C-alpha cells in the first residue's frame, strides 16, 4: 500500500489565532465545523490535489478530548499525518499482521455547511509513533474536506511531510516493512539532521542532531517536524512571505514566515 496523504492536522490553542496566522501568510482557511467526539473545531486549507492542512484547536475552554492535546497547548503546529484508506478496519488488521500497535477504528463526525461528515479513523503505532493515522469516509469526502479554492495557485499539494524520529534506521525498517518501500535516498540538513526519503513517496524521515527539531522530539516523541507544500517556489514567493532558502534532495525549499521551519514550500 502506498501511503497517500489525506491531510495534516496543524494544532494550536485557539482556532481564530491560528486562522489569522495563516491568513497573514497569504492563505484563506475555510471553517470546517466542530468535532463532536474530540471537543475540537477545525478550519481547512485544501490544496488543488485534494490534500489538506487541517487547522485544529479546542472548541471551548472545557474541551480537552483532542487526539493531540499536548501539541495544541504548545501551539506546536503539525501534530500528525493522515493517509486515505479504503477500509480503516482492513488497514488496521494489516498493520497488526506487521506487529504494529493500533487503536481504532473510531467513528467520528463533524457538522459542516455541506452536511454532517462521518468517517472512520485508526491510529498506527504508539502515542509517539511516526506512522500515520488512517481515515476512510462514510459520507462523501467533500463533506469532510471541501473542494479547494486554490485552483490557479502556485501551490499544488502537500509535497513532503518531514517526520522527526529518534532512530532513523529503525524508522526506515518500520516503513519499508509496513509499506514495502524501496531503499531510501539519504541527505543531510543542518536543521533536520540526517534525512531519508523513499523514492516516489511524500514522506521524509529525519533524525536531528540538536536544535529546535531535536527539542521537539524530546518533548513530543516522534512526530511531524515540517510540512512542505509542493509548488513553484518563485511564484509562491509572490503570494506568500517566504524565507530561508535551502535545498533538500536536490529540491529548492523556502519556509513560510511566522511558522519557523514547520511550514514551507518545496519545488515541484
Automatic annotation (TrEMBL):
Pfam families documented for this protein: Glyoxalase_3 (PF13468)
Matches recorded under SUPFAM superfamilies: Glyoxalase/Bleomycin resistance protein/Dihydroxybiphenyl dioxygenase
Organism superkingdom: Archaea
Name under which the protein is recorded: VOC family protein
Glyoxalase-like domain span: 10-177
Organism: Halarchaeum salinum
InterPro entries, alphabetized: Glyas_Bleomycin-R_OHBP_Dase (IPR029068), Glyoxalase-like_dom (IPR025870)
Amino acid at each position: 500500500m502506498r501511503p497517500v496523504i489525506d491531510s495534516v492536522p496543524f494544532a494550536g490553542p485557539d482556532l481564530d489565532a491560528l486562522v489569522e496566522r495563516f491568513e497573514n501568510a497569504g492563505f484563506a482557511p475555510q471553517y470546517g465545523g466542530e468535532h463532536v467526539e474530540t471537543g475540537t473545531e477545525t478550519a481547512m486549507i485544501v490544496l488543488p490535489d485534494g490534500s489538506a492542512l487541517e487547522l485544529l484547536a479546542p472548541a471551548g475552554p472545557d474541551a480537552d478530548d483532542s487526539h493531540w492535546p499536548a501539541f495544541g497547548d504548545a501551539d506546536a503546529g503539525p501534530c500528525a499525518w493522515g493517509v486515505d484508506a479504503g477500509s480503516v478496519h482492513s488497514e488496521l488488521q494489516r498493520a497488526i499482521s506487521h506487529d504494529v500497535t493500533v487503536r481504532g477504528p473510531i467513528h467520528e463526525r463533524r457538522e459542516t455547511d455541506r452536511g454532517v461528515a462521518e468517517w472512520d479513523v485508526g491510529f498506527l503505532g504508539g502515542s509517539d509513533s511516526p506512522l500515520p493515522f488512517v481515515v476512510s469516509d462514510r459520507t462523501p469526502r467533500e463533506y469532510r474536506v471541501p473542494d479547494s479554492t486554490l485552483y490557479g495557485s502556485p501551490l499544488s499539494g502537500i509535497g513532503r511531510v518531514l517526520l522527526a524520529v529518534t532512530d532513523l534506521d529503525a524508522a526506515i525498517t518500520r516503513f519499508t516493512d509496513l509499506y514495502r518501500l524501496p531503499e531510501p535516498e539519504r541527505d543531510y540538513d543542518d536543521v533536520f539532521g540526517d534525512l531519508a526519503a523513499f523514492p516516489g513517496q511524500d514522506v521524509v524521515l529525519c533524525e536531528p542532531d540538536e536544535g529546535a527539531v531535536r527539542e521537539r522530539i524530546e518533548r513530543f516523541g516522534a512526530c511531524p517536524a515540517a510540512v512542505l507544500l509542493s509548488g513553484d517556489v518563485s511564484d509562491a514567493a509572490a503570494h506568500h512571505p517566504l524565507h530561508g532558502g535551502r535545498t533538500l534532495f536536490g529540491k529548492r525549499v523556502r519556509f513560510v514566515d511566522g511558522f519557523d521551519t514547520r511550514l514551507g514550500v518545496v519545488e515541484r
